[in-house]
Design goal:
The complex is a heterodimer of chains A (about 325) and B (about 270). Chain A is α/β, with parallel strands linked by helices. Chain A has a six-stranded mixed beta sheet, with helices on both faces. Chain B is mainly alpha-helical and about 270 residues long. Chain B has ten helices and no strands. The longest helix of chain B is centred in the N-terminal third of the chain and has 31 residues. The chains are: A alpha/beta (about 325), B mainly alpha (about 270). The interface between A and B is medium-sized, with 30 and 26 residues. Chain A: It comes from Gryllotalpicola daejeonensis. Chain A: This is ABC transporter ATP-binding protein.
């Protein structure tokens, strides 16, 4: 018997507004997260990440599909059962601008009182690196310090499941590294974590698996090193041919291809490059496909994932993957 | 921890926050004290007022109005603006992600409002006594009367403030919506202008709202009994005061119960 997943999502849909003007923010998403796993949802702004997470946190009712979080459907919980369920989760929302005049320590003391088995105040303050600011008023903290307090408030109740919605937006690189250490520590203690982020390196560093969301759909799901499928990682050999055109070849044997090119050119091939697609290349390719095709025809977007799997990327796709920012507005 | 215990925890931190926020402190806590000072100083030279033989000075005459206004501001204005602000800046959303019962949140608001409201009354009385030499009642029965009007009035005002917090779309617009509304109410309810000198249609309009009754109740506590001749019908009408305040309490309770959400619900 396999243990029940901490989060189980089947066919999740969410639309905002009614009638003609309604917008489909989440359009049929399936995934599940096992106990102790760190799962990252990646995707551009407006892709449906926060809508999905806020449904799982119990803030919003869904429009369709099934959701189970810690064995319960948050939308059907009420009264004491809802509060008991909330005591088992930790929520770090996207950054807010609260005018909190309490100190860091007072704020944590207050929130600790809400939970049945809170962590120690000083332990949590130290874990997020705010020991020196424990007596400072929250509204006087810098953006990064506030974000660390947000995380501290999310973990003070010793949650089994922690939601982190874009936790490191606005962090400097040092703060981000420290934050990653904190997440690793929580994972080692057995906390299940659902993270949304814009940062691929963050997802790669922290998560066991990632789900990539674009235009309300999950376009890929799996361990970070397998996202996009094996063919998306096939190296690219690029050179300039005799006519001055850039040529590309995708091959699992780049050395052999280069050897053949050297033989053909009877020397050094002009502008020779051997490229292994980075995670970012693969990600941009995944959401890039959807970004452009979904604009005109929402239905075709659904097929992108499978189409990519069946036929290897064409030469045009490869070019796009290498220099996406120049060829299209991926991040829009 | 129990719902009431958590309410007490919230009340403690609400109380600490209240005295660290300049806006709340000035516009709800000190405002009636300052107004009492200004009115008494400005009109003090015009002589005493009231029925012949029982005249009092201006500070004595304005004290009950300022006590009533303080209850209104501490209850309606402070809570409506504070909760609307907490709704729009993400505080409520964050609390909604924790196992804090919504009832504890309200108990916390009520608890801190009662403590700060009571402190405000004490400050007003001390200020009136020490600065303007106002004669305070010596009969313990009068203080019992003050107590029930204060508790009932503040409870009704606090619940109305909570209900009203659902109206503004943002924390910033809350101030713009609530303050003019209450200023209007204060003028027609005889807080700044003597109620007995207002046109009768204005008195009638004011009779539908709680402030007129709180002010009347406070006059019955702090003014000589002969002043009741100036009231509508020549009586203090304590029964009506209790009835109207209790009615508004129920209205506020029902509206709050129906409208409160940790976050604005989407369609």
């Amino acid at each position: 018997m396999t243990p029940e997943p901490v989060i189980d999502v089947v066919g999740l849909r969410k639309s905002y507004g009614i009638g003609q003007s309604s917008v489909l923010a989440v359009d049929g998403i399936d995934f599940s997260i096992a106990r102790g796993e760190v799962f990252a949802l990646l995707g551009p702004n407006g892709a449906g990440k926060s809508s999905t997470v806020e449904i799982l946190e119990g803030y919003h009712d869904r429009s369709g599909g099934e959701v189970r979080v810690l064995g319960a459907d948050p939308q059907r919980l009420h009264g004491r059962a809802l509060l008991d369920w909330k005591a088992r989760i930790g929520v770090v929302l996207q950054s807010t601008n609260e005018e909190n005049v309490l100190t860091v320590r007072q704020t944590l003391q207050q929130f600790a009182a809400f939970y049945p088995h809170p962590r120690g105040i000083d332990e949590v303050i130290a874990a997020v690196g705010l020991t020196e600011k424990a007596g400072a008023r929250v509204h006087k903290l810098s953006g990064g310090q506030r974000r660390r307090l947000d995380v501290a408030l999310g973990v003070i109740g010793r949650p089994e499941l922690l939601f982190l919605d874009e936790p490191t937006t606005g962090f400097d690189p040092v703060a981000r590294r420290e934050f990653w250490g904190l997440i690793k520590q929580l994972q080692d203690e057995g906390t299940t974590i659902l993270l949304t982020t814009h940062y691929l390196d963050e997802a790669a560093h922290l998560s066991n698996r990632v789900g990539i969301i674009a235009a309300g759909r999950l376009v890929d799901l799996g361990p970070v090193d397998q996202i996009g499928g094996a063919e998306a990682r096939v190296p690219i050999v690029r050179w300039r041919d005799a006519g001055g055109r850039i040529r590309e070849l995708r091959t699992d044997e780049p050395a052999r291809a280069v050897t053949e090119l050297v033989a053909t050119f009877e020397g050094e091939p002009p502008a020779l490059e051997v490229i292994r697609p980075s995670l970012e290349d693969i990600y941009l390719q995944l959401i890039g496909h959807l970004g452009t095709e979904a604009e005109g025809d929402a239905d075709s977007a659904a097929d992108v994932g499978s189409a990519r799997g069946e036929s290897g990327p064409s030469a045009a796709d490869t070019t796009r993957a290498r220099t996406p920012r120049e060829t299209e507005g991926v991040s829009a | 921890m129990s719902t009431i215990g958590l309410g007490a925890v919230r009340a403690k931190y609400e109380f600490i926050s209240y005295f660290r926020e300049f806006d709340a402190l000035f516009f709800t806590f000190l405002f009636p004290v300052i107004m009492l000072g200004i009115f008494s100083a400005a009109f003090g030279g015009m002589g005493d007022i009231g029925p012949a033989g029982h005249q009092v000075n201006f500070a004595t005459y304005y004290l009950p109005a300022m006590v009533a206004a303080g209850i209104l501001l501490s209850g309606v204005q402070n809570l409506a603006v504070a909760i609307a602000g907490e709704k729009s800046n993400g505080t409520l959303k964050r609390l909604g992600g924790t196992p804090l019962p919504p009832m504890s949140y309200f108990i916390g608001k009520l608890g801190s409002t009662f403590v700060t409201g009571a402190m405000q009354v004490v400050v007003l009385l001390l200020f009136a006594r020490l600065v303007f030499g106002v004669e305070l009642p010596t009969d313990p029965a009068k203080y019992l009367q003050l107590l029930w009007i204060f508790v009932l009035g503040l409870l009704a005002c606090a619940l109305l403030g909570m209900a009203l917090s659902a109206v503004p779309r943002s924390g910033r617009s809350a101030t713009a919506v609530v303050i003019p509304l209450l200023l209007f109410l204060q003028f027609i309810s005889g807080v700044y202008l003597p109620f007995s000198q207002l046109p009768s249609w204005m008195q009638t309009v004011a009779s539908f709202f709680p402030l007129k009754w709180m002010a009347q109740g406070m006059r019955s506590v702090f003014l000589p009994d002969q002043f009741k001749a100036l009231e509508v019908g020549g009586q203090w009408h304590l029964g009506w005061i209790a009835l109207v305040l209790a009615g508004w309490l129920v209205v506020g309770l029902v509206l709050t119960r129906l409208t409160f959400r940790w976050i604005r619900k989407d369609a």
